[in-house]
Queue: 3 jobs
Job 1
Amino acid sequence: MKYLVTGCAGFIGWKVTEFLLEAGHTVVGVDNINAAYDTQVKQWRLKQLEGTPNFEFHRSDICDRDALQKLFNTSYDAVINLAARAGVRQSVENPWVYVDTNVTGTLNLLELCREFDVQKFVLASTSSLYGANNPLPLSEEANTDGPLSPYAASKKGAESLCHSYHHLYGIDVTIFRFFTVYGPAGRPDMSAFRFVQWISEGKPVIVYGDGKQSSRDYTYLEDIARGVIAGLKPLKYEVINLGSDSPIVLIDTIRLIEELVGKEAELSHQPFHPADVRATWADIRKAEKLLGWRPQVTFREGITALVEWYQENRDWAKDLQTG
């Protein structure tokens, strides 16, 4: 098979690309290597892919429709759109770039799929859509009309466009709502990576609230990548949660990392941010039924892998910006 993967130097895009290549497929990868978070880790991920047979990389932006169109000079079995502006708090500071990438970028790709008769489209979405008022665990049928951040709102827009293009043109669409993805070479602006770096380097660990009032459904990167690839089969139109179904209280995450690193955290408590969701917990019955998917990596195993990766790459990972 031949796939176009956008965001191939991103956290999830890198691992999905790696798994597709290992399975013998051809991947055309697109990434603009933007500075939404420290680009050193994006360059590291890209370096793991470069030189692999059947991989072709283009530094391009999905907001640039003309540049994208040039990549459709070949036929694709699917377009996997993992390029996104992610992050709740950054979207409050600069909502425009989130709409550009997550809404207009998705529209560009959908329109090119229509124009060039690509039958399958996969979209990365987010558990942030569920907002604050839905019962736990969060099912795909829950109300998503109350996004708490421009990031969540932009992903709601992307999902709506996908539905329109499925309805109008029959494009087979799978939308994945990811729950707090973590693992080796993770995003340095997300909690798991930040906690490992901060505790390892003796920096203050910023905790919003007391650390006991919020929980996250942490999902290991390789489990997420397996789920995305399982969703490449024909499904017509589906929205599917990918999560661990085992939420972890924030302070327990810190305690586990303290144990694995062998250092005590210096906690710095800050007020909750109004754009943050207090708790996430995925109902994954749909993924189990449609994809035969369940997470395989326990939280302890996943955090151990992240800590080990950090220690192996500490000479440069210690300087990654975590803002």
Note: The first helix runs from residue 11 to 22.
Job 2
Amino acid sequence: MSKIFHTLPLTRLAGTLAAAVGAEAPTVSDPSLVPEILDLIRTKTGSDTVDRMLLYNPDAVGTWFYRKYSDMFSAVKAHTDIEVDYLTAYPPKTPVCFATMYTGAAPAVHGIRKYEKPVLTVDTLFDSLPRSGKRVAMVAVANQSIPRIFAKRDIDYYLMPYDGEVVEKALELIAEDRYDVIEVYNQEYDDVMHLTHPQSRRAFRAIEHYNESFDRLCKAVDKHWSAHDTLIAYATDHGTHRAFFGLGMHGSNIPKDMNITHFYGVKPKRID
């Protein structure tokens, strides 16, 4: 496995997503953007922006896992156009990383520097999108990091018992075509690898569930959002490693935990 750290900071994503949908960036976000994403939008649509975004956040899928088992991601790659490698936030813990992803700021700025789940008091993408007139839905497992740290925003929350119900609700919302941005969070792999290890049989099945769910969501976009230019993202938060005592974990300043790869695709509107 690579001992080299990625160099593109995750702080660049929030402002890029805001620009992609023609919204204000969070006020604390990194002003440097991710040109590959914006270039993809222009290439696929002929425009600088999209009408819709589907942001799928599967927990704990490190670059090393994807590179080693890339065949497992064929359905993800079928719906996406580019891969972007990021260096996630340190420490690579779920609330730290998602706070960085959706504020565009480092932990020293957004304030979450360890495994804790306070409501963020800085500006986030879930503040700037509604300010810009975007209708946003968050579909996540109840009481987990994303809905807790991004609580009390002017968005609609759909908090479900576990991943399966999250995906089913997201499919309903895509079919209704009422939201400009839908964020979907799944966590099974992170849960399973902590109980076993990152390459256990149950862990592989959890990754399969992630990728099957993403495929279903993207097919729903194809069916129900065909009148819109849509950016889709398969965007994880951190990686994992196997500790000396055998179980899976994350939180160390090592490439296995810090290096992540996102997948982005643009589905242009179709005129039937």
Note: Residues 2 and 71 are 19 Å apart (CA to CA).
Job 3
Amino acid sequence: MPNIAVVDMTGKNVGEISLSDAVFGIEPNAAVMHMAVVNYLANQRQGTQSTLTRSEVSGGGRKPWRQKGTGHARQGSTRAPQWRHGGIALGPKPRDYYYSLNKKVKRLALKSAFSDKVLNNSLIVLDELKVEGFSTKTVVNCLNAIGAGKKTLIVLDENNKFAVRSAANIPGVKTAQVNTVNTYDIINSDTLVVVKDAVAKLEEVYA
């Protein structure tokens, strides 16, 4: 079991915690993490892009010149794709990019991402994130004290509206709960900060 120090909001070492090998100590599977990231990004796409085909642009109802005898190439409409202001050939139309991954693949990707952070010493276990009222300064001071990077993901054990709203104003900082954390956010962060109580819940769910 990998052991990691537990720090408080001032950066002081207040203990040590043993992390589960089943969640934080596996061999990271890069291929599965890549699949999870591609899936996440695809599912974020709105798919609202749209272009007009030759039948949808206005004009072009009349043949521009007769078929033969002009010396020009034959043309049937001034709204064909090769004309200026013509329609777009084979352009994008609204579509749904959503697809799902196997549940076991998702779990393996998450555990691989957690283990990768432990291997790279990018995981910080925080004793508790106590924010009284909406105070961005409190969260900023805490992250500076514990040595978090510019891009930080904070995993909370429960919905703490004060902590979530206070962290929302900080560029590069995101918050998540145990049931909403995803592989993309973990990989995309420089530092993963997990509240101590959230570690127990993660191990309960994913071990």
Note: Helices lie at 21-24, 30-44, 103-119, 136-146, 161-168, 183-188, 196-206.
